[in-house]
Amino acid sequence: MDKNYIGAGSSLLILGLISQRDRYGYEIIRDLEILSENVFQYKEGTLYPILHKFESLGYVTSYFKRENNKERKYYQITDKGRKQLISEKEEFELFKQTVNNVVGTFKYEFSE
Amino acid sequence: MSWGHSSMSSVSNSYIKQVLKQVKFIVDHRSIRRELNSHIQDLIDEHQWHDLSEHDLNIKIHEEMGNPIDLGRSLNQVHKPILGYIWVVSRSIFIIVLCLSLLNIYKTMVNTSVTRQTITDEKLNVKHLVGSIGNILELDYSNLKYRDWDIYEVVDFDNSYLIFERIILTEDNDLVLVYRSQTKFNLLNKYNSLYLFSNLDLTDQNDIQYYPSYDVQMGMNDMMISLYHGVPFDTQSIKMDFKQVNESFTLIVNGDDYE
Hints:
The complex is a heterodimer. Chain A is α+β, with helices and mostly antiparallel strands. Chain A contains five helices and three strands; from the N terminus they run ααβααββα. Chain A has helices at about 5-10, 10-20, 25-35, 45-55, 80-110, and strands at about 25, 60-65, 70-75. In chain A, strands 1-3-2 form a three-stranded antiparallel β-sheet. In chain A, strand 2 (about 60-65) and strand 3 form a beta hairpin. The mean pLDDT of chain A is about 85. The model of chain B is unreliable at about 115-125 (pLDDT under 50). In chain B, helix 1 (about 5-20) crosses helix 3 (about 55-65) and helix 1 packs across helix 4. The relative contact order of chain B is 0.10. Chain B has seven helices and ten strands. The longest helix of chain B has about 40 residues, at about 80-120. Classes of the chains: A alpha+beta, B alpha+beta.
């Protein structure tokens, strides 16, 4: 998929995953790959700046937790993050609807 | 060939070091290091890279994680030094103010308990107290009769209390007033606004006015002792007038209520 599409939807996807339950970076990358059937493949170098930016904006908080002899940094969504997620979902729905409307016109023209 | 744990750590550290070199806000280095180190360990475990050579492991990590310098630069844009240091300084100031406030509460509690115990609650020690006051004021009260008014009246000011503990009238017409100020709890630990105390005038029931001959501060509890000469031993009522720039009060105490 075009990287521009992936980049534009990053906030929605990552916040969406964290809103389901607290997750750590490695887990987010793997879950995105599995759930999107490898359509969304984030490099670690892309994910962490986004996560850290969310933290600085107050969308998420973080905490370290040791499990299976590994120390992991978990991210947890905040109320502000949930509001942002709702806003991004609405934007995405509007975008999707608008694209559908326009593409529908193409289809009509093609079928004519 | 297996390179073992030290080799993995070395490759991981080398990668993270290059990332951190780009991040100017060093306070966050430790957290970033812990997070990336955990991520690299997960990568190695999942892909079973434990047996790779140091060189191959290094290549694999770069392939998966991307260029460390690019990652470091991206993180540096988020971890702004100025905002970061403002946060660190603000947090430090908050902690200091909190500690000072807790200390203030502690001091206030200690002040209250110690003073009540030593002055007001122990009636049997009044003779000793009068003797001590006599010693402090270089007067011999040891053989005098005295009247003891256990008044404990609290006057409430904006940021402090003025607490009148005792009035003691001696046979040779001296009046001893025992009182103290106590600062109320406040976050900024503002100083007590009351200046103790050369302007606490007394008037008896016959409208005769008395001024303190001595003001002595006693102990560490802001305890003050003022001595007024010429107050008759059989005085029935005392009016206290206090005036300061922004503070004033009048308090009337009747001996019958306290003896």
